[in-house]
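S2.1 Query sequence (GtrA family protein)
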Amino acid sequence: MPEARAQERAAERRRTLGQLIRYTLIGGSGVTLDLVAFLLLHNWAGMHEQFANAISTTLGITNNFILNALFTFERRDRIVVRFLRFYAVGLTGIVLTYLLFLVFTDALGLDANIVKVGSLPLVLALQFVLNRKWSFA
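Output structure tokens follow.
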């Protein structure tokens, strides 16, 4: 029996690692969409960084939800509830990035583009854990 349990734990670790890899790859497409939209809205259209961030992040969240529902967590049930949860988790990224803008851009004068790029790995890690445990549980 202990060997069977060890095999189950190993299989779960492999499954989690596979999900993390797919989540990261899909996240890359969402990050790219988010960043391109942010740069266009903020630098080209002249939109304030907070508004540009809210719009660009929403685009990335929607992209990532669709792809993660299909390929990472393979869950297609309760789609509206799952999207609302996924979006709520996505809002944590907006809030975290907002706070980073306040500290690093507004208070310390760093370029908003650098702060946006620097926030992405932290936001990705936080959201994977929350989405795996809540949105797609």
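Residues 2-44 form the longest helix (43 residues). The chain is about 90% helix and 0% strand.
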